[in-house]
TrEMBL record:
Its biological purpose: Regulatory subunit of the poly(A)-nuclease (PAN) deadenylation complex, one of two cytoplasmic mRNA deadenylases involved in mRNA turnover. PAN specifically shortens poly(A) tails of RNA and the activity is stimulated by poly(A)-binding protein PAB1. PAN deadenylation is followed by rapid degradation of the shortened mRNA tails by the CCR4-NOT complex. Deadenylated mRNAs are then degraded by two alternative mechanisms, namely exosome-mediated 3'-5' exonucleolytic degradation, or deadenlyation-dependent mRNA decaping and subsequent 5'-3' exonucleolytic degradation by XRN1.
Protein name: PAN2-PAN3 deadenylation complex subunit PAN3
Thylakoid keyword on record: no
Free-text domain note: Contains a pseudokinase domain. The protein kinase domain is predicted to be catalytically inactive because some of the residues important for catalytic activity are substituted and it lacks the equivalent of the binding site for a peptide substrate. However, it has retained an ATP-binding site and ATP-binding is required for mRNA degradation, stimulating the activity of the PAN2 nuclease in vitro. The N-terminal zinc finger binds to poly(A) RNA.
Residue span, C3H1-type domain: 24-53
Compartments where located: Cytoplasm
InterPro entries (UniProt xref): Kinase-like_dom_sf, PAN3, Pan3_CK, Prot_kinase_dom, Znf_CCCH
GO cellular component: P-body; PAN complex
Residue ranges, compositional bias (Polar residues): 72-102
Start-end of C3H1-type zinc fingers: 24-53
Keyword line: ATP-binding, Coiled coil, Cytoplasm, Metal-binding, mRNA processing, Nucleotide-binding, Zinc, Zinc-finger
UniProt subunit comment: Homodimer. Forms a heterotrimer with a catalytic subunit PAN2 to form the poly(A)-nuclease (PAN) deadenylation complex. Interacts (via PAM-2 motif) with poly(A)-binding protein PAB1 (via PABC domain), conferring substrate specificity of the enzyme complex.
Amino acid sequence: MATSRYQTAEMRRQVGSPRPKTRDTKDTLCRNVVIYGHCRYQEQGCAFSHDPNKGNSNSHQQDSSKKALNVESPSFTPSTLQTTNSTNKKPTFSSQAVTAPSFTPRGLGAATPSTLPDSEAQVFNPAAIREFTPGFDLSSSTTTPANGTSQDGTVGYDVFNMPSQNLATTPFNPYAEDHSAITGAPSTYFQPQNAFTAPLQPLQHHLYAPIGPYREDLMPYHRLTHDFFVPEKLREELQKKSEAAMQVLPNSQLPQLDSYHSLVPLDTTHRKNANTFGYPSWVYKATSSKNGNLYCLRRLEGFRLTNEHAIRSVKEWKRVENANVVRIHDAFTTRAFGDSSLIFVQDYHPLSKTLAEVHLTPSAAHAGTGRFQPKTPIAESVLWGYITQIASGLKSIHSNNLAARCLDPSKIILTDKNRIRLSACSVLDVVQFDIRRPIQDLQQDDLQQFGRTMLCLATSTPPQQLTNVSAAMEQMNRTYSPEMRDTITWLLTPPAPHKSIDEFIQGIATHIVSAFDQSQHRADTLNSELFRELENGRIARLLMKLGTINERQEFENDRAWSENGERYMLKLFRDYVFHQVDSNGNPVIDVGHMLRCLNKLDAGIDERICLTSRDEQTSFVVSYKELKKQLLSAFNELMKAAKPGRSF
Ligand SMILES: Nc1ncnc2c1ncn2[C@@H]1O[C@H](COP(=O)(O)OP(=O)(O)OP(=O)(O)O)[C@@H](O)[C@H]1O
């Protein structure tokens, strides 16, 4: 049983119920005296008793039958709470705790089921949560009845006709919290809000926006965590990639280059292979000393630069910005490896593999023999995806008056599911700079190499073993559609005056459209994951703020700072969120409860909760809105004393 959660539910039911009128208020201790030590309205006609000793016995007697303070306590006025908060600097709760009416959580507990999540927590259903009033600060209305009756009350205006320009035009950054507003200084950023203006602060919601696409295959017991966090598979994938990106080699023998350090080899074999470039090539991950970013360095061993202009040709490749071409940043020569090496600096794509590694690697039985074991044929849709992406890369390269010159399954990398990039363009432009060939010829070669690469992939044949093209075409016909055969045949036919990448793209237009659709779907899915992270990011920042306050050993020579005044409430809030126990005293670990409470605190909604002192002698009814103010006020105190220039 989670005792305080039961109280919250009880209070929710009480929200909106009429206040008792028949009670003799003179004998009732004012609620503000109990919580804040004094009542601002004492001199303005507040009908309740302000003598704590008198009130103690009376309220104790009265309320002991009700077991806990609650929103129906006659003297409790939210508007007063709000004002009192800002004027009453250090209310000492511990002294009032003695006079507070008794609170008996155990009695309430009997009615609470001991199962962890309540029904609201089990299935994420925004529609079922009644107190969600997106964006309208009803409590600040002067006509709003006391004790938060507005929460479930009817909204007396047409929410669909609210002015929307504020939300649309305000460039809002929720993380740039305006701390000056909390300390009483007028905020120039947010204008005053009331019930009849649209809110200027969009964070007045505490729910995760359930924006699709949705996963339909989740069992109810999966839902809580899956609904709040990145899906397991994606998280694992991203974490592996970030692990690979952060990998370092202890005791590495690799040299440090002028601008790059912490080199990690990416080659999966130690085989010296000079087939592609005429020089053995090695690939490393490296960290730039200039900006700390990671790059991929391709080194051509033993290359001697004879023509200064050769290396400058790389400059032209900087213009190629295509999602299917690995970006090239720089090229230079170095003697750091003990030879004369040529280095190309490219974007680094963690855990990428070449198409040859993925589709043409020899099986274990043939490993080391150089023979490739045919693998299961690539699905036709995947092959069309590759064709579309290579065509897009080539289109961009050819439009820049360049040629890829290196279309080979071992030089095309797979950086994500079915996502490929041409990885070694520009290398031959430098290496074969002196053998100048017309760019048109090189572009025609690109198309033919494109055809050969696709044939290799369609027949699972490594390029060096593709000696009989017509036999390979035959083999391909057995697995793939005639359209695929025609496409590859077109690419392989000898150059013709009008043969160009543009013509090719027109020919495969329908496949480009489906690839485009798939890519949009993927973007939608990732976008919806991003929405979750947006909310989780809010929680992380909130937890950091709470962490700076809760249990702080000392502040401004006050060893009890984190225990006093508004900080005491925050301590009790921490207990309420994280330290709940069931009727047997066992911890209640309920992610849904924690997330819900933190989201509500971040949004500062009007819902009230009952916080109970650790000795269970005192309970405080407080709204998330008030708690948020207390949190920001305490945090603001810390920020003021912190070193200037540190931002949060
Ligand atoms: N830009 C890059 N970012 C991250 N990894 C890359 C990048 N380019 C290549 N790699 C990886 O580096 C490894 C080596 O690439 P390389 O082009 O040398 O292939 P290879 O199979 O070793 O070919 P070769 O036998 O011709 O050397 C491959 O696993 C490849 O996925």
